[in-house]
Specification:
heterodimer; A: alpha+beta; 2 domains; four-stranded antiparallel beta sheet; 9 strands; 42% helix; elongated; B: mainly alpha; 0% strand
Chain lengths: 275, 121
């Protein structure tokens, strides 16, 4: 078998009829910057948004190498996201994961054909809806001043024994304080989640970010994604404004609207959650 | 970490932009696979990539302010650092325990000594 010079990189999947209005809706997008246009491939009732990429740069080995370089991973992630965002602006679009690559258009059609029902279901679920991200953080700095000063510890202990006990007391108090604050923050996060879930048709918990992303001064206690009907943005913002007033132990961040990345393959639907 | 970060009121929030790299990455990488491509990069690799990437992000955003290698010594992030912290605390406690024991030991000896003196005047 001879190696094809190009592979087909797939970004997103839409319903076929939805993308016919402008003839080449994505022609202006750079995509991954390979020089080839971002185009569509029809497969039955579905359409994939794709781009030709050179096999030499995007086969398994090259892709792995490429994505191992921070700057290149960022470039690819942003390019991938830009095409998905553009597709979502035109029609309901199921985002595909970064680096979904096929040998050719024929393989794209086969793959879409194999999963036709699940794609149509996913498209039905996300139509008219957008994803929002809510992150809740607990500050990790020292607790407010009064609790931090163990007034019972004399500056000059009576001897090594007194100092040792005082030391253990201090460690224990500090640890207890940390645990209490963390428990408070977790409960606050649950209340935030419950409130936003009430507005959403589906919700999903994402992995909390590590300290590399949050910074040392705060811990991530909730990282959640919610699928909301397009008309509910104002309600969402109002709910968060009120939560921010009430939940003073935590920081609450909102991001979105996103293409429904977190709900492409299901998501935890909560029947009874949305009216 | 700066003083300013600590006194920053918790309720004040910034809205994150969808252009935030960490948010984009968790969405384009961390998702369940709807469809498998012909060219596959397995999940373990992606996991490694995200870890590396998060370090990369920190090197751009946070590390510049906080010192390039602070995560090396952060117990929350580095298990080695966590072990070091534990070992250090352990050593400190042992020293204090030793001091206490020798002090009590000395007191007991002198008490016993006094008692024996009483018995054998």
């Amino acid at each position: 078998m001879t190696e094809a010079a190009t592979l087909t990189y797939a970004f997103a999947v839409c319903r076929g009829g939805d993308l016919t209005a402008p003839a080449e809706p994505f022609a202006e997008l750079p995509g991954l910057g390979t020089g080839a246009p971002v185009r569509t491939v029809a497969a039955g009732p579905l359409t994939a948004v794709v781009q030709d990429v050179p096999a030499a740069g995007y086969d398994e080995e090259a892709l792995r190498r490429r994505l191992s370089v921070g700057a290149e991973l960022e470039r690819c992630a942003r390019a991938h996201h830009a095409v998905i965002t553009a597709a979502s602006a035109l029609a309901p679009a199921v985002p595909l994961p970064l680096a979904t690559v096929y040998l050719d258009d024929g393989r794209v059609r086969e793959a879409l054909g194999d999963r036709e029902t699940s794609f149509l279901t996913a498209l039905g679920r996300i139509a008219g809806r957008a994803e929002w991200g809510v992150k809740v953080y607990a500050p990790t700095g020292p607790p407010p001043a009064p609790a931090a000063v163990p007034a019972v510890v004399p500056a000059e202990g009576p001897g090594p024994g007194g100092n040792g006990r005082a030391y253990l007391d201090r460690v224990r108090t500090r640890q207890r304080g940390r645990e209490q604050r963390h428990a408070l923050a977790l409960r606050a996060a649950e209340r935030v989640d419950a409130a936003v879930r009430g507005l959403a048709v589906a919700a999903r918990r994402l992995r909390p970010h590590g300290v590399e992303v949050t910074g040392k001064h705060r811990t991530h206690v909730l990282n959640a994604a919610y699928l909301l009907d397009l008309g509910r943005e104002r309600e969402l913002r109002a709910a968060l404004a009120s939560l921010r007033r009430d939940e003073t132990d935590v920081q609450i961040e909102l991001s979105g609207p996103w293409a429904p990345y977190s709900f492409a393959d299901g998501g935890i639907t909560d029947p009874g959650a949305a009216p | 970490m700066t003083e300013r970060d600590l006194v920053h009121p918790p309720s004040v929030t910034d809205e994150r932009h969808p252009s935030d790299l960490a948010e984009i990455l968790e969405r384009v990488l961390d998702k369940g696979i709807v469809i498998a491509g012909d060219i596959k990069i397995d999940l373990l690799d992606i996991e490694l990539l995200t870890i590396r990437l998060r370090l990369f992000i920190s090197s751009v955003d946070t590390a510049r302010k906080a010192g390039i290698d602070w995560w090396e010594t952060d117990p929350a992030l580095s298990s080695r650092a966590a072990r070091d912290t534990l070992a250090q605390e352990n050593a400190e406690l042992r020293t204090r325990l030793h001091a206490l024991e020798s002090r009590i030991g000395a007191e007991e000896l002198s008490t016993v000594g006094a008692a024996e003196e009483e018995r054998h005047p």
